[in-house]
Write a structure and sequence with these properties.
The structure holds 2 protein chains of 2 kinds.
Chain A: H1 2-30, H2 38-52, H3 62-85, H4 102-113, H5 123-126, H6 129-157, H7 168-193, E1 204-207, E2 213-216, H8 221-230, H9 251-275, H10 279-306, H11 309-313, H12 332-344, H13 359-371, H14 380-399, E3 405-406, E4 409-410, H15 413-443, H16 456-471, H17 486-515, H18 532-566
Antiparallel strand pairs in A: 1-2, 3-4
Helix pairs in contact in A: 1-9, 1-12, 2-7, 3-4, 3-6, 3-17, 4-17, 6-7, 6-8, 6-9, 6-17, 7-8, 8-9, 9-10, 9-12, 10-12, 10-13, 10-18, 12-13, 13-16, 13-18, 14-15, 14-17, 14-18, 15-16, 15-17, 16-17, 16-18
Chain B: H1 11-23, H2 27-30, H3 34-54, H4 63-100, E1 106-110, E2 116-120, E3 129-133, E4 142-152, H5 154-157, E5 163-166, E6 173-174, E7 179-189, H6 197-206, H7 214-243, H8 250-260, H9 263-282, E8 285-287, H10 290-296, E9 301-305, E10 316-322, H11 328-339, H12 345-353, E11 366-369, E12 377-382, E13 385-390, H13 392-401, H14 408-419, E14 422-429, E15 432-440, H15 447-457, E16 460-464, H16 469-479, E17 483-485, H17 490-502, E18 507-511, H18 517-522, E19 525-529, H19 534-539, E20 542-544, H20 551-589, H21 607-631, H22 640-673
Classes of the chains: A mainly alpha, B alpha+beta.
């Protein structure tokens, strides 16, 4: 057992060691400072912009950035919708998989464009290779979108800023080519060497030991998997995601894939510190995020190692921990570790069934998504955290008797209004959605019987988890939920859209409003934001907002299940 | 008008506030406060639920229990209204005592030439001229256009020593309600009735014309946001409960909602604002708007005049130094004689320094030489002896013209005195320099501590003086101010303020003269002295009735207290919710889902007692915190981070723990009674 814990510790420390220099590099990319990779990428960038006819040096205001983002996302959405509903006759379909139904295609297109990757289908039977590759491209661009718009907020607070904050298209391309692509390429090589398939040929046929013939799905998986992990996308090549042996063959690939989940989210925090030249502030943010992460991950790992008391009563040996829904090659501890990693970062890839975790681990996974900023998704995690900083600054400023200010700009009614609206989005979508589903289920249990594998508290958790996952743009599922129905496809699709774009618009608007205000130099009366005390305040704000909004719902799901299992 | 109401709850005020609490239940009034408005809606719904139960419905629990919850919610509303009403009542009481000074008084309105008619003060209009003679109460604010008078301003300032006001210059303004003690003045009315500063302030403390300040608006938005979150939480709980087959009663849902929304701060918010204005008034400062007080809490730079603020009004003689070969005693005698006719405070202080005028002093055949702009020196001729004292240059010219040498040691003394922030006065006898007198600015006792306090608040102090840079630097260092403007002209102040503002700093200044008016208007917080000119008072946004230039420290603290009280009570209010959840959520489901008993960590007796205890605690905490809301959270200049730590510990952690104890105690009491 100590080896399992050691594996987790190693993964974390390696990621931290890599994230600090990577953050510096990302900071340089966003600040347009020279890096060694320029030789490679400058010509590539020029080619892009020459072909597209966009002037990458044209600076944009915060509003123009948002316009560009929304326009380009609409284009991507339309293209995906077309591909997904026409896969049948489009090329690269050796297995002859069918096109998607309209509601499933809507859900899937939304899900990939919004970086959620909630999959109400199984890749091996539901998509052609062309469909897979199209979605792979969205895994790059949706991650790059998050990073590019986040860098706009970075640039807003950098020293010598103006109200013109770089060019969105240029930042988007730089995020994709200079940050995501090199890392994904390295990852793909490692996966390839460990046996992950990379081919355009159709299913392979194998004769099993019993003599039966088995068909094995394959395809361009090695290219698909690294970006799914890096970009906090989480959309698996196979239906069972990284629990599938061809998507995650051994412990080494498991370590790499885990590391890729939270490498860029942590690096983004240090990139912020680099761009605004305030390392201490970056460490404060990292500290708060890590505190929250540890509070979720430690009890989860311990819970899974401890096993399930009901299974113990059946006389089954649980010395290796609870193994229901887990892979032997990965182990209980690493599965729990991945589960929390993937939920706090809005990644959503899985290497075990979250549905089968012990109730409290399931709850911690949901809490990770409800908070959605303990590291958080690439770029957007930082933006979510930024909203809590604004609320923390407001409360803290009042408590020290001074009009609140953040990095020298006054936080006033308009900013508080936007921050509060954004803080409301998540509870509204999650609680509203789950309430609607519960109500429908209760009014006609026969009609909706197909929804829930497990009635009772666990069934409630399944519905709550689905909406939480959609609203956090996470994409993991509690499974056990019959989710490929028009209700779930459309409801979750709408939730994903709102939960993706409102929390992007809000923080960018706040940053845009703040930098148009006069800069106020710091004095002894100014509330310092890079201190442990302020960090504690932000942590308290995050916990209170999440705990206060979701406590009753969690009580009726995982907590009720926990108490009925253990008491 | 000094703060006479030391007790927070005076009997008559409480009675008045109680009556107001019921009047304020009117939804039109309560609508201004979104948090309490939702409580009122909940209370009304509960009222109908009670009627429904009385009519025979049996799914919602017993009538007694529902009625109890209804009454407690009603009480919650009344408590919140009472908090606002008592703050208003106190403000009104304060305002009434001010208003007494401006009761109807007869005014001698000048008609044409010298004739006048006696009218009531309320009939005076802007532009009218009235006459005041010894014994008259001045009927209205105005500016003296003719004459000079001693005036008793104790009704306004509490200061018993009479002051002199005269036409022209910076001491020309008079305040209504003060009394003329001697002489006769003609005064021009400068404001319409009901529009004077005092009237504005009375409106502010009475709450009628009170507008929400920017930070208050932002906080209201935050609180409304939290209220929306909890509408969502309780609203969605109903279908959730349906799903787990454990339906909840309307009363339980409304109780949960009222407990969760920030009623504590919602109920006290306007009381805090009114009490802040009231505290400013008690400090004898009249403000034009609540916003100005709030801005005062954010001040970064404070401009102060040297004279009268940092130093005691006038220079004082501190040392005399005789030239070589001059007898010290003889020199002291000459110094005494030279100042006998000098009526200036400096002259008097010289006589004081050399031991005062001896009783046996007899002078024959003498002539006082008054100071003239031409000779630039003063002194006395006694017989054949001509004693003169004056500035260094004047006496140097005088002695050198007569062929005398200016002594080297005196020259050195003169330089030393200047470097020490003093002013040298050289004395000559028969055109021969015999010594030098050192005049020093006396820094007010305790001023260094006050500046230290300002520095800890993060405020930079700037001294404005007409002195030369050398003297100014010395005094600035000695008094502990951070910066100074030497040889200041009125436009220098203005430029300094503009420069600081361009860098994003908020600037406050105190001033009294007409030439201060532009700078007072430019400053973010301009405090005019009540003794100052009408122009200065119009330009600033506050008037200090005590004419105390360091009053700004108090104003800054009042501004900071205002924000802190709101911030800490909000934190307290939200932190309370954790315990309330642990009281109510298990209570809602304990019957349907017995295993949730595990969440009942307070071990409350029954679902009904748990919900009752939570709503009772929620109601009682409001009156419990009224004194804090009225007095304000204490401000300590210990730096922002330390202050935050302190307040987080007291109000954050305290807010987390207190309701666990309170609810448990109330529950124990309830189960003991029933």
């Amino acid at each position: 057992m100590p080896t399992e814990i050691l594996g987790i510790l190693c993964t974390y420390l390696l990621v931290l060691a890599a994230a600090i220099p990577l953050g510096r590099y990302i900071g340089k990319v966003f600040s347009y400072e020279p890096t060694r990779l320029d030789v490679l990428f400058n010509p590539l960038d020029r080619l892009f912009f020459k072909l597209s006819g966009i002037d990458p040096r044209l600076p944009m205001s915060w509003k123009e950035h948002l316009q560009a983002l929304l326009t380009i996302n609409l284009v991507w959405f339309t293209v995906s919708l077309f591909v997904l509903t026409n896969m049948e006759w489009l090329p690269l379909n050796p297995d002859g998989n069918p096109s998607m139904s309209a509601d499933l295609a809507f859900n899937t297109a939304v899900s990939f464009v919004t970086n959620t990757n909630l999959q109400h289908y199984s890749g091996e039977s539901g998509l052609s290779y062309f469909g897979q590759l199209t979605l792979m491209v969205w895994q790059f661009v949706s991650a790059a979108t998050g990073m590019a718009i986040c860098s706009v907020v970075f640039l807003a607070f950098s020293p010598n800023t103006t109200t013109r904050l770089g060019n969105f298209y240029s930042l988007l391309v730089r995020s994709a080519t200079r940050i995501l692509f090199p890392l994904a390429f390295l990852g793909a090589v490692v996966l390839l060497l460990n046996g992950v398939p990379m081919t355009f040929e159709g299913k392979a046929a194998a004769t099993t030991l019993e003599g039966a013939v088995q068909e094995i799905s394959r395809g361009p998986a090695a290219a698909f998997v690294p970006i799914k992990q890096l970009g906090t996308n989480g959309g698996g090549y196979y239906g069972t995601n990284s629990a599938h042996p061809l998507e995650n063959p051994n412990y080494l690939t498991n370590m790499l894939e885990t590391a890729f989940i939270f490498l860029i989210p942590i690096a983004m925090v240090f990139a912020f510190g680099y761009v605004i030249r305030r390392k201490k502030l970056a460490w404060m943010i990292y500290g708060v995020m890590t505190l929250g992460f540890l509070l979720l991950v430690i009890p989860s790992v311990l819970n899974e190692l401890k096993g399930n008391p009901v299974i113990s009563t059946l006389g089954i040996d649980q010395r290796l921990g609870s193994f229901e829904g887990k892979e032997i090659r990965v182990g209980a501890a690493s599965s729990a570790y991945w589960a929390i990693n993937t939920t706090v970062t809005s990644n959503g890839s899985v290497n075990a069934m979250h549905d089968s975790m012990t109730p409290l681990t399931g709850m911690f996974a949901m809490v990770g998504m409800m908070v959605n900023c303990f590291y958080g998704g690439v770029g957007v995690g930082f933006l979510n955290f930024f909203v809590f900083i604004i609320l923390g600054v407001f409360m803290g400023g009042l408590m020290v008797g001074r009009t609140p200010e953040f990095l020298g700009r006054k936080v006033e009614a308009r900013e508080v209004k936007i921050a509060m609206c954004i803080a409301l989005v998540h509870p509204l979508l999650i609680l509203g959605g789950t309430a609607l589903a519960s109500h429908l289920y209760v009014t006609d249990p026969v009609e909706y019987a197909g929804w829930l594998n497990n009635p009772g508290f666990h069934g409630f958790s399944e519905m709550l988890y689905e909406f939480t996952s959609a609203s956090a743009n996470n994409g993991s599922g509690f499974e056990g939920l019959g989710d490929n129905t028009p209700f779930w496809n459309i409801a979750c699709g709408l939730v994903m859209l709102l939960a993706r774009f409102l929390p992007i618009i809000g923080p960018v608007a706040i940053a845009g409003l703040l930098i148009s205000k006069k800069y106020i130099p710091e004095s002894a009366g100014t509330l310092k934001t890079d201190t442990a005390t302020f960090g504690l305040l932000v942590f308290a704000v995050i916990v209170l907002v999440a705990a206060l909004s979701f406590f009753p719902a969690l009580t009726l799901g995982p907590l009720a299940e926990y108490f009925s299992l253990y008491y | 008008m000094k703060s006479q109401n030391s007790s927070l709850f005076q009997k008559d005020l409480v009675r008045q506030a109680l009556r107001e609490s019921f009047i304020k239940l009117n939804p039109k009034i309560i609508f201004r406060n979104p948090v309490m408005f939702t409580v009122e809606i909940g209370t009304v719904i509960l009222f109908f639920v009670c009627i429904w139960i009385a009519a025979g419905e049996n799914s919602q629990g017993s009538l007694g229990y529902n009625l109890a919850v209804f009454l407690i919610l009603l009480l919650t509303l009344l408590f919140a209204n009472f908090a606002e009403a008592i703050a208003e009542a106190r403000g009104k009481a304060q305002a009434d005592s001010l208003r007494k000074t401006r009761e109807e008084t007869p005014a001698k309105r000048v008609e044409k030439g010298t004739s006048y008619t006696t009218v009531s003060s309320s009939q005076l209009r802007k532009g009218d001229v009235f006459l005041c003679e010894a014994g008259d109460i001045i009927p209205s604010d105005g500016e003296i256009i003719e004459g000079l008078a001693t005036i008793d301003e104790s009704a306004i300032t509490g200061e018993s020593a009479p002051v002199i006001r005269e036409a022209g210059g910076d001491k020309s303004s008079v305040t209504g309600g003060t009394k003329v003690l001697s002489d006769r003045i003609r005064v021009l009315v400068t404001t319409e009735p009901g529009e004077s500063f005092l009237d504005k302030m009375i409106g502010l403390v009475e709450g009628a014309s009170r507008q929400k300040t920017p930070n208050e608006v932002a906080l209201t938005i935050l609180l409304a946001g939290f209220t929306l979150v909890f509408i969502l939480v309780t609203g969605t709980l109903a279908p959730f409960a349906e799903y787990v087959n454990s339906p909840v009663t309307i009363t339980a849902l409304i109780s949960l909602f009222v407990c969760l929304i920030p009623t504590t701060i919602g109920g006290l918010l306007s009381a805090i604002g009114i009490a802040g204005m009231d505290r400013a008034l008690r400090a004898n400062v009249i403000t034009k708007s609540g916003r100005a007080v709030e801005v005062a809490g954010d001040i970064d730079v404070l401009l102060l005049d040297k004279t009268g603020t940092i130093t005691i009004g006038n220079r004082k003689a501190t040392r005399i130094f005789a030239a070589n070969g001059v007898d010290e005693k003889q020199f002291a005698h000459s110094v005494l004689l030279s100042s006998l006719s000098d009526e200036t405070p400096e002259g008097k202080s010289i006589i004081e320094l050399v031991g005062g005028v001896p009783a046996n002093l007899k002078l024959d055949n003498f002539r006082f030489i008054k100071f003239t702009a031409e000779t630039r020196s003063s002194g006395i001729d006694v017989g054949q002896t001509r004693i003169r004292k004056g500035a260094v240059d004047t006496i140097r010219t005088l002695s050198e013209k007569a062929g005398n040498h200016f002594p080297e040691e005196i020259h050195e003394q003169v330089i030393a005195i200047s470097a020490n922030g003093g002013t040298p006065l050289v004395v000559a006898e028969n055109e021969r320099v015999i010594g030098v007198i050192e005049l020093q600015d006396i820094i007010k006792p305790g001023i260094q501590e006050r500046f230290e306090r300002l520095r800890k608040m993060g405020i930079k102090t700037v001294m404005v003086t007409g002195d030369n840079p050398l003297t100014a630097r010395y005094i600035a260092e000695k008094a502990g101010v951070d910066d100074f403007i030497a040889e200041a002209k009125p436009e220098d102040k203005m430029n300094y303020i503009r420069h600081e503002q361009a860098q994003g700093r908020l600037v406050a200044m105190m001033g009294d003269g007409t030439n201060d008016a532009p700078a007072l208007a430019q400053a973010d917080v301009g405090v005019a002295m009540n003794s100052g000119t009408q122009a200065a008072k119009e330009a600033g946004n506050m008037v200090d009735m005590d004419n105390d230039p360091t009053k700004l420290i108090e104003i800054v603290e009042i501004g900071k207290q205002l924000l802190m009280t709101r911030g800490t009570l909000t934190t307290f209010s939200i932190a309370n919710d954790v315990a309330k959840y642990f009281a109510i959520i298990p209570a809602l489901f304990m019957v349907g889902i017995p295993s949730l008993q595990g969440l009942n960590i307070m071990q409350l007796a029954s679902p009904e007692s748990a919900i009752l205890s939570a709503v009772i605690f929620n109601a009682l905490i409001i009156p419990f915190l009224i004194p804090l809301a009225l007095k304000g959270v204490a401000y300590k200049p210990i730096g922002a981070s330390a202050l935050l730590r302190r307040n987080l510990l007291i109000y954050g952690l305290g807010g987390l723990v207190a309701p666990f104890i309170g609810i448990k105690l109330i529950d124990s009491a309830l189960s003991f009674i029933f």
